[in-house]
Amino acid sequence: MISRIDLRGDTLPEGGDLRDLLPRAEFDVEAALEKVRPLCEDVRHRGTAALIDAAETFDGVTLERVRVPAKALIDALEALDPAVRAALEESIRRARLVHRAQRRSSHTTQVVPGGTVTEKWVPVGRVGLYAPGGRSVYPSSVIMNVVPAQEAGVESIALASPAQKEFGGLPHPTILAACALLGIDEVYAAGGASAVAMFAYGTPGPDGCAPANMVTGPGNIWVAAAKRYFTGRIGIDAEAGPTEIAVLADATADPVHVAADLISQAEHDPLAAAVLVTDSAELADAVEKELEPQVAATKHIEDRVVPALSGRQSAIVLVDSVEDGLRVVDAYGAEHLEIQTADAAALAARVRNAGAIFVGPYAPVSLGDYCAGSNHVLPTGGCACHSSGLSVQSFLRGIHIVDYSEEALAEVAHHVVTLAEAEDLPAHGAAIKARFAWKVPGK
Fold it and tell me: Which residues are CB-contacts of 350 (< 8 A; sequence separation ≥ 6)?
């Protein structure tokens, strides 16, 4: 069901050579880019009419309007299962605790007497948030996008999620209920690349959507391609690829736990990656044996779980030592990294590349997906080596405020002029000289 990669016996290669040995799903955003281009430009030119046509083409729904009526949000919350509401509320409470602590304060540095630089943090003005609605419904993604934006102080927040034929062309009612719980009343039944285009260009009309400064949220390859298409026009969080888990485990790990955690990611998507890295052949055998009954007992077996576990993106990777395993998971840069070893906390402190790290047997990825308080919108495809998960900082911009007195500028003026002339930019130096009645060359 799951392949093996044996890296024992030889010295592990460095950097990219090691990364190339590890499993990864094929995810060609560049190829998808050409397919989403006409969809995006259609929204640019035809606005809401293009969104309605896209919903009919891709979701099988004929919409009269794209914006979700306020009453639909209220009705969805009133009809929500009380147990689901309680779970969502607890997820929101925990996420707010973590993300509120991420807020940044302005800081002023006195560089010299009379010369200061202040860094202030300003939220983006408007964001468009995306909640997927394909194979599964993700109210948790609503929370993970909305909470950091709200805690950052974003004043205008809109959310899009695909129209659902089963629910009369509205997004899934649990998505709508989550929006209502969070106080988000601007919601659109729009999916995929068309939704990203709606946020990027805006759509006119009384039910239209104002353009956003930034778009965040997970999605399929078409959402990722649309984000790439609009990079430069809008800010994005990341081009999210298929979800992935890596588990670094030794002989102390429970194979029942490890198998369950691999399956938990595999049920997302047939391209989902599930990778076990271990120095214990016995654990590898036990996990492989344990996968069979657990897979047989779960849901989404044929369309998601088995294709994901048997795909090229999933594997059991055997290494000589836990130290080698640490090098492997750092090279892999997993979206989710579980560490189930005898010294899990110490190893976690040494990891450099991961979207989120889950320490020990009682911090599974599922906890982070819903109720740990951490954010589950995380870098995929190895991007954890240079990118972070979604946070309050994602929605903030640092702006420097430079305040120098005449005396402070005079004290450093000769250095500025020297550097300007060294770069053959004499007008830069002249802008300094003009303030001190110095002779400006050429005048």
Answer: 326
Q: Write out the two tokens for 280.
A: 């214990």
Nearest to 338 by CA among 217, 250, 241, 237: 250
DSSP-derived secondary structure letter, 301: I
DSSP state of 231: B
| Residue 33, CA distances (Å) to 41, 129, 338 in order | 12, 20, 33
For residue 216, the one-letter residue type is T
Closest C-alpha among 220, 204, 202, 189 to residue 61: 189
What are the residues whose beta carbons fall under 8 Å from the beta carbon of 390, sequence distance 6 or more? Answer: 144, 145, 148, 216, 237, 375, 377, 378
Strands 187-189 and 396-404: unpaired
Residue corresponding to tokens 């509401």: 85
- Tens digit of pLDDT for each residue in 315-366? 999 999 999 999 999 999 999 999 999 999 999 999 999 999 999 999 999 9
Q: Which of 172, 300, 336, 376 is catalytic?
A: 336
- CA 192 – CA 159 distance, rounded (Å): 13
Is 14 among the residues known to form the active site? Answer: no
Q: Which residue has the tokens 């214990």?
A: 280
**292 has catalytic annotation:** no
Which residue is catalytic, options 244, 290, 335, 338? Answer: 335
pLDDT digits 0-9 by tens, 281-296: 999 999 999 999 999 9
User: What are the tens digits of pLDDT across the range 148-193?
Assistant: 999 999 999 999 999 999 999 999 999 999 999 999 999 999 999 9
Residues in CB range of 72: below 8 A, 6 or more apart:
170, 176
| 389, two tokens | 């998960």
Give the HSE-up count for residue 199: Cα atoms under 13 Å, Cβ half-sphere. Answer: 37
pTM: 0.93
- Residue 126 corresponds to which tokens in the numbers above? 């408007």
How far apart CA 3 and CA 159 sit, in angstroms, is: 39
Q: Which two tokens stand for residue 331?
A: 């090279």
> Cα Rg for the chain, rounded, in angstroms?
26
429's CB contacts (< 8 A; 6+ apart) are 416, 417, 420, 421
